[in-house]
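Figure 6 in text form: structure in, sequence out.
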């Protein structure tokens, strides 16, 4: 494996996290639109995939008034997880000699 391929793999991992964080952001923005049809063929997969992750945090973080703070905590946890995975991948690739 060349260093360019290893770097592309690392970038792909980082981009996957960024896309999911963007999905969380879009989901939160869409909750402000009243009477939105969540059964739409585009919105339903977005809602289901994001709520699956957010429900883990909603169990422990109650809403404050009408505000749900669980997405903010979920995004912070995603950033921490992203950094741990990226640094671990970089370390592993360097250990195996794919990165110099």
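Output sequence:
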């Amino acid at each position: 494996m060349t260093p360019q391929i290893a770097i592309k793999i690392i970038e792909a991992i980082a981009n996957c996290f960024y896309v999911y964080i963007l999905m969380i952001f879009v989901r939160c923005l869409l909750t402000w639109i009243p009477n939105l049809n969540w059964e739409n063929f585009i919105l339903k997969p977005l809602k289901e995939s994001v709520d699956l992750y957010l429900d883990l945090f909603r169990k422990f973080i109650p809403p404050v008034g009408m505000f749900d703070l669980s997405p903010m905590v979920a995004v912070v946890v995603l950033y921490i997880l992203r950094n741990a995975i990226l640094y671990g991948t970089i370390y592993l690739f360097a250990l195996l000699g794919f990165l110099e």
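Caption detail: The chain has a mean pLDDT of 92.
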